[in-house]
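Might I ask for a little of your time on a matter of protein folding? Here, with my thanks, is the record as I have it:
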Amino acid sequence: MTSLTANAAVTIKDITLFNTENPGQIWVTWTTGHWILGVSDQPIGPLLNAPNGSVDGISQGNYWLFADPANLGQFPQLDVTLSNGSTLSTVFEIVGSNGTAQSWTHLSGSPLLSLGWTDGSIDLVGTYHGITPDGINDYYMQATLGIPEPSQYAMLLLGLGILVVYVKRYATKL
């Protein structure tokens, strides 16, 4: 899990999506015998993946994920490995169906990840190492991958501090 000392220099090293009910069904952004997970910072591409499928060094934020359809199961898990060596991991329950905009239910894991279906259909990746379309519409998902910046933690702590001061002042007047 990522600590409160995270900083903007922390980037995404790789992303893995897998079926928790069938752990052999895996989509990845690194080269192995698994299915490729395409990543874009725009709804319809282009892919940010290098020719070998990797996405090492992309910044945290909102992304669109593309996976050749297979058995995703009802409870997929998304793992995001960061450049600082930490891994964010979240299990979701799928809501809705591919091609209809719908956020998935967060069941467990990091609150810093979100995932859901995107509206529409597209074909950007193929099976296994395929970084090219294969004529079959992909699983088309939108994800938020990232950790809050230190400034966000500072603002949260400042807000809590002001709230504590206000409550103490109000309590002493009673």
Strands lie at 12-19, 26-28, 35-40, 61-67, 76-82, 87-93, 102-103, 105-109, 113-117, 139-145. The longest strand covers residues 12-19. Helices lie at 150-173.
